[in-house]
Batch of 2 targets.
Target 1
Amino acid sequence: METFKRLRPYLKGSLGLFAISLLFALLATGSKLAIPLLAGRAVNKIIDPTTSPLRFVDFIVLMSIFLVVGTVFRYVFDYVISLIGQRVIKNIRNAVFHKYTSAPISYVDSSRKGDMISRLINDVENVQTGLVSGFAAFYDGIIAIGFTLVFMFTLNWVLALIVVFLTPISIFVSRFVSKFNSKNFKQQAKDSGLLASFALEGLNNSESVNTLNIAARREEEFDKLNDSFRKSVFKANLGASLINPSTRLVNALINGILIAVGALLVIKDGSLNYGVALFMVGDLSAFLTYASSYMTPFNEISNVVTEISYATSSLKRIDDVIRSSDDINEGTEVIDGEVDNLKANHITFSYDGVRTIIKDFDLDIYKGHKIAFVGPTGCGKTTLINLLMRFYDPQSGCFEANSISTFDLEKRAFREHIGMVLQETWIFTGTVFENIAYSKKGATLEEVKLAAEKAQASSFIERLPNGYDTMISDSSGLSVGEKQLICVARVMLMEPEIVILDEATSNIDVRTEALLSKSFDALMKGKTSLVVAHRLSTIVSSDLIVVLKDGEIIETGNHNELMAKGGFYNKLYNSQFN
């Protein structure tokens, strides 16, 4: 029941179609199972023509009709179930991807990327195979069992009771094996996510792996994870393979008993018929067919139970994602017009609640000012940007925009005022035009070209084989500097009021940096600019330089003032040129 509750939201819009498909399954199975009864009656007609008023040819016609009807309904049922299954896959994938995009940055940062991809792709496929298709097979099996029971009791209630009495043995065996397998399938899903995550991590950092000469060590670690995955898959598959042979063994014993008792009932001796109607060879033949059909659904259900168990584990992993907290967005206010000022109001923050990264940070940031944050690695420069963007929230204090706490501002609306250029470039598979225009819906080619010119990117773009229509990707052969220029052009197109440069030039050569300096100056003119930089030469023109150490402000001033003080900034600046 809990599994159905988890699956039900994704069946929205398909429940009516699903109900119709179940009706088709009912008609298809009923038509199919009526044929052995007619065949048995036809055999009886041959042996004793007085057993039925129908002619032999009438039985042939009826069986042909049921065969055609059952085949058509079966096709419709399978088609509809396949259609519903693909709809469910689409709905679940949309829900998981939406959750990933709406989840807090902290959730993404703390999750293994390979495991996230595994849930989005592999686990969703498991749900479609095990729960949607599996449930259809399960329902079909239940219908078959119901019809078969009716036909068996119609033919001979003594043999029917024997079948019913012995059935729980087969069910008990299959349930015992399936229950034993459940933990193995859960472990298999877990190990699959770990292996995918490790592989993705290695591929994304292949240059570092080769540079550090740790490829052999990574292979050993992968081999251990792979071996663990192999063992869990082996245990799961071994357990699954035990279900069919064990139930078939029980079924063979039951069929042997039925044949023996049925042969006795065929004997023309009233003492052996126990008051039942005349039981003939055709009836025994039909009954044995039904007995086999009766046990077959149990075998199929046993196999389906294995798939359902695997799919249930995958659905639980998906549900864990869906139930995770969304990015907190309690703010409802929006800023009319432009952001005139920003203020950091006594902010204290820690990622883990143990080590404090930012300590009582207080700063006024005025419109049109260029504020630079400098300091040693780990002093909290990038963390301040994360707090301003509300990727994380401080334990105390807050940022204010136009004297409104960012906690009270609607996140998406506030972020529309901000453009960021990060150290890590994001180039997706698409044309150059699409990569730049991604930041502004409905951007024209003229606007994109103008943004590229401002970013000093137009010259190299025009040299590409197809110019702005050239297909590019993160691994398409563009240099780091060229990819960064495209990212800068993307922000140029936004024309934001607040510009954030977080180590934006750290991966760019000196020549490219010189090209960018003018475009950055044009971009930041009259706007609030926050710059995080290790190259202090890039921030000497800043209106205010904030020097951080251990999450606290230790010095403030412009470049000349800080150099004259002869303090920490002076030493830091000189260390880069000596």
Target 2
Amino acid sequence: MDSKKAEYIDSNFKYDGVLGVTVSDAETEFAVWAPEAEAVSVCLYKHNEDERPYLSVPMEKSELGVWRYNHSGSLYGVFYTYKYTYGDKTTEGVDPYARAAGVNGDKGCIIDPSTLNPEGWEDSGYVTLKSNTDAIIYEVSVRDFSVDESSGIEPELRGKFPAFTVENSSTHGGEPTCLSHIKDLGVTHVQLMPVFDFDRLDEAHPEKSYNWGYDPENYNVPEGSYSTNPFDPSVRIKEYKELVMALHRNGIGVVMDVVYNHTFKSFGSHLSNSYPGYYYRYRGSKLSNGSGCGNEIASERAMVRKYIVDSVVYWATEYKIDGFRFDLMACLDIDTINEISERLTEINPNVILYGEGWTGGDSALEGEKSANKYNSYMTPYAAYFNDNYRDAIKGGTFVDKATGYISGNFHLRQSVADGLLGKQDWNCNPCQIVNYVEAHDNLTLWDKLTVSSSAHELDRHKMARLAAALVFLAQGIPFIQAGQEFLRSKPLGNGDYDRNSYRSPDSVNSLKWWSIAENKLTVDYYKGLIAFRKAHRLLRLSLRTEIISHSETLPSPDGTICIHLFDENEELLLLVNPIPRAKMIGLPEGEWQLHITDIKASLTPLATYCEGVFVPPISAMVLRKVK
């Protein structure tokens, strides 16, 4: 569909009302938007596996291209699809607004999710922060979290939503795992990799295949493979709510990783069936591919924007989701992101919104309209992943052998110093920066260091801890991938490492909780860094103006960094030495107590220094002035 046709549709058929199915004891109401369809029917099925509907009812076209059917009485638990006729072609698909579905998402199910709230749901609320820079985000796949035997989770719950509700799980050696571990670690938010209903995995036999979930099928339905019973549409809804409630009960927020930039199927998707051509961007007669996955969603169109906004609002209200991470957010337009921000902030003033400030290919969306990191000043309530800082710390992500500041490229000193102070050429305030060195994509930090550095393994351990320090000591929002704290690796068994494990087996992707015991020093270091960050406001400033007025860079030897943070209450020194030999750095006047060194991060002082200190090789040190 070309832009002129889309503008005509938006001008004449924009609809602001409720779409989807509403069910009560008295009646069941269906509403679907398909303004140019010649006919639309509701097909009702008693069972998900039925090949033919027991009832097929023509819908009536009403205002603004909305087709309606009102059924007398409740159809709760009945499965349904829509049939659309355009010209000589009729297709059948799931309601784009479906909130429940059968196994593998081929049919919607008529359910009121509010009737499936677990006991205590009313008392479960959003996680409250004074500023988004107070957040500490932990990314994890539901499956990876507990599927390994070392998780200590009972077999029937491994890789499932309920694993997040298990208290006091541990390895055979007694190390806390899963929920117990993340509580102990101190993170504030868990970012779940896609948990909406996705394609390319058989929900009836999830053990036979693997998928990260970046293949959207039903945007408003929880994924069935993460349920203990994917055949019962109500189970996945209740179990996902129980997951959210368990994390909230422990003071941990839930962030959903959402993929509104593309759908797995193009011409056969549920969106495409409902209105062919409208939901996607085109270049001439061909689909644009800004996602790198074959198509891209035309978020700038009125009813596409409504669909995306309605979807995130639904998750935020029905499931009490605390935040959203947008995959390839630059494929979405600025106005859509700002409308999402406005609507969600009304629901939850503490909502966290962030995403990838880039596309996966050449997008048809004009650059000035794109929610990319260089337009961040136009989306003041959305944050962006700081790939500049990531690559400065560990080396170019897409060049395996490229080294970073921590692994020998000391010329990147200024880029790292700027990152510590939240200085980027694209951001407005630190609340818009997500700092990280590892995420689900590409090599893990440990594998990157293994591939790019010839240093001794003990030095690579020091590099990994230094990378963590640079994330948690930097202005902005810190983000880590699950298992990063115990040096997660994804070996392929042939001496190489998996760079894109989206369909790799559990043997590659699962969290190996037994690694905690092997890397206890690093795990404890992460805990200490998180605790120290939480205890010191100077590391969590919210405004660029605050950073300017409360920081300065002091002289230090070539390749090293010395940053002074100060306010009326305290003074901190951040010292960084990536060089494989100790460096003397002079200290400002007064006594300075050491809290963070190369092997320990502590809330209580470890030593006191005056005039100068030798910073150990490949390490960061943090000192606090004695008042």
